[in-house]
Amino acid sequence: MLATVKGKRRYDSSRRQEQAQRTREAVLDAASRQFLDAGYPTTTIATIAADAGVSVETIYKAFGGKAGLVRAIYDRGLSGRGEVPAYERSDEMREQETDPETIMRNWGTLTAEVGSVVIPIRLLMRSAAATDTEIAAVLADSDNERLDRMRHHASFLSERGYLREGITVDEATDILWTCSSVELYEMLVLKRGWSPARFAQFIGEYMIATILPAR
């Protein structure tokens, strides 16, 4: 009897978690649609709740409000388009790969992939930040977190002895931070019409030329 009860509880817990995840995704999908279609100021928690088929209270409890929703949408976009989040693929690749030029090219590919996903919400964040202090804080936090991650990558390159002589970890961090920016993707892909593949190749080759030892 005890074994039966425990098994049922595990099953119910799993189903609750799956339902909670589906609800979360439905809310983020609805919020993303409405933010991008109607704009951040016009969109309300009530309209998002109605679209997602949940209560207003559910959204406030899970995300804390519109700024929290924007942050969650952005964080989801950072995972890229693959089943495994982009940052996990990046870390696994760099640990297994011994050719620094291949690492750079792979990072270029991942940068283009993530950029193509997060660019809409990033542009919305940038626009809304001009008049909304909460979104401005979200934008600043996202920049700082990306800077920390690029410093993590630069330190890895330094420890492996991959950095060009005279290039410090700080300089490498700044280059990686710039190359991974949505703003660069916006300029070259959205404004100049580059394909994501061409952008990925450019980023990889640029990092090779500026960070690694001369060939």
Describe the protein:
With 215 residues, the protein is an all-alpha fold. The protein is 79% helix and 0% strand. The protein is built from ten helices and no strands. The protein has helices spanning 2-38, 45-52, 56-63, 66-77, 86-96, 100-128, 133-159, 169-179, 182-191, 196-211. Helix 1 (2-38) crosses helix 4 and helix 7 (133-159) crosses helix 8 (169-179). The protein is elongated and about 60 Å long. 28% of the residues are buried.
Main features:
215 residues; mainly alpha; elongated; single chain; disordered N terminus
Tell me briefly what this model is.
By secondary structure, the protein is mostly helical.
Topology of helices and strands:
Elements: H1 2-38, H2 45-52, H3 56-63, H4 66-77, H5 86-96, H6 100-128, H7 133-159, H8 169-179, H9 182-191, H10 196-211
Helix pairs in contact: 1-2, 1-4, 2-3, 4-6, 4-7, 5-6, 6-7, 6-9, 6-10, 7-8, 8-10
Overall spatial form = elongated
Order of helices and strands: HHHHHHHHHH
Largest sheet: none
Query: If helices are DSSP runs of H or I spanning 4 or more residues, what is the number of helices?
Result: 10
Radius of gyration: 21 Å
In round numbers, the mean pLDDT is: 92
Tally of DSSP β-strands: 0
Poorly predicted sequence stretches spanning 5 or more consecutive residues: 1-5
Fraction of residues in β-strands: under 5%
Terminal CA distance: 70 Å
The secondary-structure class comes to mainly alpha
Relative helix content = over 70%
